[in-house]
């Protein structure tokens, strides 16, 4: 119903400038990036719901880009952000939310119904990264989506590529900022958290049906390690980080050197995200959030990603900011049944979510977002509004709410929707106001 779809659209706050230091300085360490999943079944939603805010330097342009499925000649090479690696013979169609300068992506989905997001983390092995260019975490995510037909297969590709090529290299355009990575990958039946340490070590935790999970710029896997890199446990024993006898605690070992201290506790944005998941579970139990309530679940995830008070929605004109945002609804039956929503803008509290499906006529034709499909122009327009410190008129907020409500209604009906058309509407809307 239209009224339910409108509930998806939470308050679209006015844009405001947050005065900070000169934007020409080197970006500070990541202070935000939050990824969530609630896996379908087992008393959870009827479809897996996924969401992430990509928090990057506020002046770094972000685009949404579609890449069709493709065949590649045997022996061909692939240029990623910094290095070349062997290409596979067949890659899946993907839609990616990404920094415009980078080959890899912050968030994305493939036509098989797999979604994923990556975040910066830090371990006691971070010194291994040095300055040598390798695969970025964003490259690893895109490669996993292009090659993995299921979430589990995507994890296998990601960890194999990490072991073979390593991670590292500049994660900012024209700079030397680098970091280790954490990932959350999901499909309609299960999800996985993958966290890394140093150039090639990793651990994986499975998220089963009916369970929620979140990550927030930090190591989070404890003793629930389903699999890990070869030699990791032996390394931790050799360094005195684990006694080799008790349960292997990934975070305590590679994050704290085996010591128990307050930083091991869940806190800050990670705690706020866990509280959101617990609240959703409570609503499922009391019947106020039915499993099949598409608008209700999408509205819940939108509310999580628009939570400014906790820092999950991070807003800073000259520092870090939520430069891109994605929500996905992954129903069983294959990637063509999935709905993906992107802001293609620098602030999820202001811009609306626009729906992408792999059933889009443009996507089926293989040129889903020819060039940037208007998404880059939209991002830059919203950025100019932010820099000007101007408020969004109430009439514009109502019109944005209507675009978002139509996107949710389309997801409820299960039909295709044209993402680029919604981008064009939003661009026209913004241009029609003297803001």
Separation of the first and last Cα atoms: 32 Å
Q: Which structural class best describes the helix and strand composition?
A: alpha+beta
**For the report, how would you describe the main beta sheet?**
8 strands, antiparallel
What's the count of strands?
18
Gross morphology is globular
Q: Helix and strand string, N-terminal first?
A: HEEEEEEEEEEHHEEEEEHHHHEEEHHHH
Mean of the pLDDT scores? 87
Give the strand content: 15-25%
Trace the largest sheet across and list its strands: 3-8-9-10-11-12-13-15
Q: How many helical stretches?
A: 11
Rg: 21 Å
Helix content: 25-40%
Low-pLDDT parts are 1-30, 364-370
Q: How does this model look, in words?
A:
By secondary structure, the chain is α+β, with helices and mostly antiparallel strands. It is built from 11 helices and 18 strands. The chain has helices at residues 2-7, 137-147, 151-165, 232-238, 250-256, 268-286, 294-305, 361-364, 375-388, 394-413, 419-431; strands spanning 34-38, 48-57, 62-67, 70-71, 77-79, 84-86, 90-91, 94-99, 107-110, 115-121, 180-186, 191-197, 201-207, 212-215, 227-228, 320-330, 339-342, 354-356. The strands form 4 sheets. The chain has an 8-stranded antiparallel β-sheet with strand order 3-8-9-10-11-12-13-15. A hairpin with a 4-residue loop joins strand 9 and strand 10. Helix 2 crosses helix 3 and helix 10 (394-413) runs antiparallel to helix 11 (419-431). The longest helix has 20 residues, at 394-413. The chain is globular.
């Amino acid at each position: 119903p239209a009224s339910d779809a409108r509930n998806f659209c939470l308050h679209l706050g006015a844009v405001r400038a947050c005065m900070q230091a000169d934007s020409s300085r080197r970006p500070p360490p990541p202070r935000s990036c939050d990824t969530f999943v609630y896996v379908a079944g087992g008393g959870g939603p009827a479809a897996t719901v996924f969401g992430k805010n990509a928090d990057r330097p506020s002046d770094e342009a972000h685009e949404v880009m579609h890449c069709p499925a493709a065949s590649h000649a045997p022996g061909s090479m692939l240029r990623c952000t910094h290095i070349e690696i062997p290409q596979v013979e067949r890659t899946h169609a993907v839609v990616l939310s990404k920094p415009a300068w980078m080959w890899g992506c912050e968030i994305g989905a493939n036509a098989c119904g797999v979604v994923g997001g990556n975040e910066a983390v830090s371990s006691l092995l971070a010194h291994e990264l040095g300055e040598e260019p390798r695969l970025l975490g964003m490259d690893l995510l895109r490669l996993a989506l292009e090659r993995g037909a299921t979430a589990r297969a995507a994890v296998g590709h990601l960890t194999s590529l990490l072991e073979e090529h390593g991670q590292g290299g500049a994660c900012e355009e024209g700079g030397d900022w680098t970091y280790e990575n954490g990932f959350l990958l999901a499909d309609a039946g299960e999800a996985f958290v993958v966290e890394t340490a140093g150039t090639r070590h990793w651990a994986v935790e499975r998220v089963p049906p009916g369970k929620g999970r979140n990550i927030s710029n930090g190591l989070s896997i404890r003793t629930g390690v389903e699999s890990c890199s070869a030699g990791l446990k032996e390394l931790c024993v050799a360094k005195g980080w684990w006694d080799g006898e008790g349960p292997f605690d990934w975070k305590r070992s590679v994050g704290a050197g085996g010591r128990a201290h307050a930083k091991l506790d869940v806190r800050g944005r990670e705690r706020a995200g866990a509280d959101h998941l617990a609240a959703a579970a409570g609503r499922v139990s009391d019947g106020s959030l039915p499993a099949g309530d598409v608008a209700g679940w999408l509205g819940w995830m939108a509310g999580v990603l628009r939570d400014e008070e906790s820092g999950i929605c991070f807003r800073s004109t000259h520092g870090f900011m939520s430069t891109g945002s994605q929500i996905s609804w992954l129903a069983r039956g294959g990637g063509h049944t999935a709905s993906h929503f992107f802001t293609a803008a620098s602030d999820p509290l202001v811009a609306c979510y626009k729906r992408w499906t792999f059933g889009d006529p443009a996507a089926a034709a293989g040129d889903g977002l020819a060039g940037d499909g208007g998404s880059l122009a939209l991002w830059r327009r919203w950025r100019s509004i932010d820099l000007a410190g101007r408020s969004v008129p109430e009439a514009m907020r109502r019109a944005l709410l209507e675009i978002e409500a139509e996107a949710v209604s389309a997801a409820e009906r299960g039909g295709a929707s044209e993402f680029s058309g919604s981008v064009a509407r939003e661009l026209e809307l913004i241009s029609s106001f003297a803001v």
